[in-house]
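Q: Hi! First time asking for a complex rather than a single chain. Here are the components, and I think there are two in total. Is that enough to go on?
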Amino acid sequence: MIVIGAGHAGCEAALATARMGFRTAVFTIALDNVALMPCNPSIGGPGKAHLVREIDALGGEMGRNTDYAYMHIRVLNTRKGPAVQALRAQTDRKLYSWRMRQVLEREPNLYLREGCVESILVRGDRVEGVVLETGEKIKARAVIVATGTYMRSLIHVGEVNYEAGPQSQRTTYGLSRSLEELGFKLARFKTGTPPRANSRSLDYSRMTPLEGEPLTQGFSFRGKLPPKKQVPCWLTYTTKETHAIMSANLHRTALYSGAIVGIGPRYCPSLESKIVEFPDRDSHQVYVEPEGWDTQEVYLSGLSTSLPADVQVELVRSIPGLENVEIMRMAYAIEYDCLEPHQLRNTLESRSISGLYFAGQINGSSGYEEAAAQGLMAGINCGLKLREQAPFILGRDQAYIGVLIDDLVTKTIAEPYRMMTSLAEYRLLLRQDNADRRLAAYGRDLGLLSQEEYDNVQRRWDSVEKEIEALRNWRLTPAEEVNRVLKEIGSAPLQHVVSGEELLRRPEMSYGKLEALGWVSSIDVDIKDVVETEIKYAGYIRKQERAVERFRKLEAKRLPEWLNYEEIEGLSREAQEKLMAVRPESIGQASRIAGVSPADISVLLIYLEQLRRGKGRRDSEKMKGGQSE
Amino acid sequence: MAGEFRSDDTIAAISTPLGEGGIGIVRLSGADAISLVDKAFVSPKGQTLAFARSWSLNYGWIVDKHGEKIDEVIVSVMRAPHSYTREDIVEINCHGGLIPLQGVLERVLELGARLAEPGEFTKRAFLHGRLDLSQAEAVIDVIRAKTDRGHRLAMRQLEGGLSQAIKEMRSDLVGLLAAIEAGIDFPDEVGDMEPEAIRQVIDDVSREIAKMLATADTGRLLREGIDTAIVGKPNVGKSSLLNRLVRENRAIVTDVPGTTRDVIEEVVNIGGFPFVVRDTAGIRRTEDVVEKIGVERAIALMEGADLVLCVVDGSSPLEDDDISLLQQVQGKTGVLVVNKKDIGSAESDERYRELLPDVPIVRISAETGEGLEELEETIVSQVVEGGIDLTGDSLVVTRARHKQALKEAAASLEAARNTLEMGLPQDLVAVDIRGAAESLGEVTGDTVRDEVIDRIFADFCIGK
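A: Yes, that's all I need. Here is the structure of the assembled complex.
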């Protein structure tokens, strides 16, 4: 087993295969930068925290690593429903990287090595190994490509550009060439990062502090969050002067001068795009985020730009609190090669070359969490394939990981893909608080979670069920005392006997208020939250469960891989092209492809039935024969 | 999800047998077909369909939700697997006209049936092994042809006022959804929506929908059909045209009053619109006498018609009678039908256009059927874009779909309002707002997901 790259995807991929019992070599171009965070020193947020919790429930490392390296943590969206509440942590970048490196170094079966892969060895339609730039040939049964944004990467700072990966690391050319030679279609994406400043030069008295929260449960359900004295983030704003400087120098940004050809993400625009596209706004937020305990370097979130260096300094100094800023690293935009991910199966294995997997930013995604999730799934599926076991696919109804991978291999990815809760159809079911319940059994079965870890999950959810049962059996009568307390806490008095469950379902009721009415329980705080969620939103949850049943029926209708859609009469031309490109694995997946209409789906269903009844058997044999020639 | 493909629910459609008049059939297929119709079926002896034998006929009434009778019916029950689709099938034989038929269909939709896609009964029959393999291509052809054509027509119809209004409402909901979702996915950059602002949009759209639903039944054209006159000199092929239109567009209903001896009326369904087509064919045997009064009669026939199909014989040069007829047609909503394309063309399009500048010209052969499809599309576009007053929505099939979508959207908005009023979080309110936008999207053929994401980035400034 070979993993190319030791970023967030590569680390999870390698740990998964090694833990599944396969000798795994990981090649990185810079051994000192394992699990590097070249952009925000932050993990989590809506959709992303969900991914981390899911990775953790499947036995991945990201959750534990974040809990270890955090400097500041809080829950976002606390005023919104439980499904969209999300943890987010600021981490110490170095600490994060060092701990992950240690985990990799200590993992039996895992061999971490510095080395730049020049090309991929393929025989027929099977991967055979890799060639390093030193000329070494290394054989392997499977290869996972997790190279991030380092392929043909080009950094832009204003009019200047140079060939480099993030954080001035080296770029690579061989692999892009090798992949093109193997027939892969590559796309060119762009992203960017803001300047970093020296904290001692900042005037924090002119900014608003944002404090972390003393939480006990972090990203990993396999342990408690170690208590720390947290570091605040700081909020300030761009000014009219900032915008004037930008407007005057717009022609010098790489983005608007035409120097950049790659497509950037809309959710992560540079300051120049924000000012151009939202001319009515005379101010944008700037968050100052710490980069580590032992460094003065801070991250100026909101100021991502491709301005030239001289203007960057002037621009940052127009912001309150940053008047005397000493910039330590300039902001830059970066362009890189990535794979058009519809060339992959939903196991993240290449459709054309057996044993070759792709994970992370090379698949057109962005974000550490998205990368880690893909790495874990690529690793798991690679291991399962070598064990000759059925692949492990998570559905859109089971996990954000399922939504992520299905979107990548099904949709046309026109910009770097980022996870958002609004992309998950069944998000009330896919909460960060129940990721362990949804996925821990898989983690155990795969051999990535211990029996003990799994038993803990079971115990936790048993106690949730027991508590709900107990509340259901707890009867409150409309006694004077009860109604007096209800009135005090702003809830309507009882007319007749109700159960604790019914009472908690009232929007204004909470667990705390239930305790004021005499409810006694000894369960943990986080279990109380879960119980409250399960009871309060039961109606909405059931609604989504019904939708999931419909969804599953279509997912269960499999489409054979060898189907030649161009020969299926009745499909529209566009549908034929899209289906040939994506090669969906089920009718459900086919129905999510843009350009495939309900009529096309009907035609497919009829064709499948024809096949089943024998007419298509000849066709299928013909086609299989054709493929192996 | 709009366009979501479902195969396990109960479907319904008007499926009137070819060429028969007076009776219309609403057919249902699916596991809930019997129990669903039972909720609206009242028999004089108090029988229920649940206990009806397979292949039995059951006399009674279909009633609306208030118990008011919609139509007197005979209901046949065919239990799975001994039915066309191998699912439970219920056929409601209505003996009323278009309005009761439509009413019965809407009633079963209201009770939870889904309007069948084109060719869906046949598709189910095939998928359940009822048809043999040789028929598979035919099934695909039916689905493909009907859908493509239906889609093209539906797209045209979408230009109409009703669909425009639906699009606008949908856009309001998508914008609202984007605002809520932006606050959820990007809490650092986007603040929460005020509940009052959310309620405002919900209320505005709900009110619009209620207004539309209230006027949906009042369309004159729906009640009576689009009054269409076929005019032209004798022997230009008027009755061949009428016969062809009738043959290819099964009449949904034929009990329209007013049939007289000297004017033939037929009701045909073109692109979902009911057309009452009048022709003077009945007086043809006295041709020699009416050579002169042909024009006068045509003028009388055009009086009050919504649409005029003016037929000329394209294989011979225009005569004075033709020209004076064309002059009468000028200024009306209509189509110039140049017939006998198979024989020849004696005049250029320019010549016709000179005489009738504002009326589209279609060359056909009523004899061979050539050009008929183009004629039908032109007729529909004249109805949709032309000067015909479409009070309310006048589509028969599409109309039921629109109405159903509006009802579902209204119900979702009601649920969203309740969630909001209970003080529950906005992501839960979003669930039903999304549902409402999706229901409306089924009319316009748009999916919500990607559009919401687009709106988030267009409306809100997000970024690091």
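A: The mean pLDDT of chain A is 93. Let me know if you'd like any chain examined more closely.
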